[in-house]
Amino acid sequence: MPATINDNVFLLPHNGGYMVYAPLASRLVYANANCATQLRSYLATGNAEEVSPEVRKQLGGLDWLASPRAPVPLPVDRHFHPNTVTLFLTNRCNLRCTYCYARAGEFDACDMPAEIYRAALELIIRNAQRSGQPVTVTFHGGGEPTLAWESLVGAVEYAQELVKSHKIRGLHLGLSTNGTVSRDRAEYIAKTFSAVTVSFDGPPDVQNRQRPHVNGGGSFEQVMSFIEVLRSHSVRFGIRSTVTEVNVRRLEEMVDFFAEEAGCQQVHLEPVFLSGRCRELPSYEEFAKTYLRAMDRTRGRKVALRFSGARLEGVFSSFGGCSRDPFNITPEGDVTACYEVCSGQDPLSGSYFFGRFNRERQRFEIDFGKLAKLRTLTVQNKPLCTRCFAKWNCSGDCPVKSAQPSPELQVETPRCRMIQAINRALLEKTLQATLQGKHAA
Question: Which helix (H) or strand (E) holds 295?
């Protein structure tokens, strides 16, 4: 673990000296051993005289080392007023992905009744009307949402009707799909949704092995046809690709394929976790190495590579929506705080389900005690993360992926070490680019 000079300034050994990383101030500088010694003294005593004028100049002043302050978590007992909803329209699926966390298609088929998605949309519209904010409606997996086509179209049209009649500022429609849809449905999606994420593990041999149809047939060609429709309509789409032991050593090849053959500008790579049908993890050490090599392949290309545990572009208190106002609805009408806990069959549903649609009262009822506990899942409330330099980048990591079955992370995990390795390497690349720019100037 790198040395800290307070809980939010870190000294990471690098090239005989140190990277001084202050994520809250968005600053990263190089310091030699003498500079680092003075820096420690200053932050221990608060006496600026501990730092020579030369070192102060090298550091760009000292004020940034003490500010800004860490974000303060919002009160856990605050009002619940979401203006965003994610609808899991069905647990049915036409694929049998080898690692599916939801075990989609294994249980009795269930589609979301119109009364549930209508009530959910009415709730966020009321909140948006009070706050003057736009609304976001997303359709997600746990099943393939396009299989409940009439419900999907019905929910879209009802949302559009409500936004218009209540004079809401705007409507953002998002869809996560496996891309195995007919041409006419692909055309509708391309014309309707402003954000589309395609679950896709290509190249062909990987996609067909990891994401086969129910009958065992490959899905690659259908997904590529869907992407061609998106591209023909100039839809900006992202690809979300799952990394297993099968493809962990092929991430460079995958990035090449997604950029050149699929024409994708945003690729999200995520290693599997032990849940649902997943029985084997890839080497996290291997993922870190190959992810960084894959990132090098993006140079000179209009493609962004993303991994959820490495977000250098901001400061994040919580990984997902648990600490905010999560409003994700399962087909049965349960309210879940996590996209990946979307079935009552999931052993974590007791921890992450915090509400349910009451059909007699025709409204959602929230368990505010459970919600308050979920709102504590911030990095500020994870003692293990206090001295970790990556804590504001991964925000304590996904509680579902990092610690099963308990939501609270108690010990450093192999995922922690993977996240640290990737973030450290990205910081080194950033520092190198900065120093090269100064030399060039």
Answer: helix 284-296
Q: Give the residue numbers spanning the domain of 22.
A: 1-70
pLDDT at 407 over 50: no
Strand (E) positions, 244-301? Answer: 266-271
Q: Tokens in use for 106?
A: 């294994």
**Residue 221 host element (H or E):** helix 220-232
- Stretch (H or E) spanning 366: strand 363-366
β-strands 363-366, 9-14: how paired? Answer: unpaired
Same domain as 320, residue 173? yes
Residue labelled with tokens 């806990």: 341
Distance separating alpha carbons of residues 129 and 87, to the nearest angstrom: 20
What share of the chain in percent tops pLDDT 90?
A: 76
DSSP structural state of residue 378? S
Number of domains in the chain: 2
Q: Give me the helix-helix angle, 114-131 and 149-165, nearest 10°.
A: 30
Total length of the chain: 441
CA-CA distance, 137 to 84, in Å (whole number)?
Answer: 6
Give pTM, 2 decimals. 0.92
| CA distances (Å), origin 178, targets 36, 141, 218, 315, 350 | 50, 9, 13, 31, 28
- 133, 253: one domain: yes
Q: Which two tokens stand for residue 244?
A: 């297993």
